[in-house]
């Protein structure tokens, strides 16, 4: 089963629409699952935050539609606003059991959010051994 690990990730959208947010959240979670040895059944909980300019759809509602995510405890919150911060940004904090060491966990930062953590933007090889 592994140890409890915290995984961060973020992305941005070009507009405040359900379609744009849905595409971005799926891309973010696809990348999370492709690059980490993560089974959604091993997720303890996931918290999504959005900047105050995004209110078209709940990211947790998008995640809940994914295969094997329907029983994951999910929460949406509004990110604290700081002047000059990255607009139209969706972030997550996921706690899960992973066999990887904390330093081996891949934290997906995509699109405009790559500037938030450039040190975490180097993608490891794909995890192909899923059962």
Automatic annotation (TrEMBL):
One of its GO terms (molecular function) is chorismate mutase activity. It catalyses: chorismate = prephenate. Keywords: Amino-acid biosynthesis, Aromatic amino acid biosynthesis, Isomerase. The keyword Amino-acid biosynthesis applies. Its EC number is 5.4.99.5. InterPro entries: Chorismate_mutase_AroH, RutC-like_sf. GO terms for biological process: amino acid biosynthetic process; aromatic amino acid family biosynthetic process; chorismate metabolic process. Prephenate binds at residues 8, 91, 109. PANTHER family: CHORISMATE MUTASE, CHORISMATE MUTASE AROH. This is chorismate mutase. It comes from Vasconcelosia minhoensis LEGE 07310. The lineage of its organism: Bacteria, Bacillati, Cyanobacteriota, Cyanophyceae, Nodosilineales.
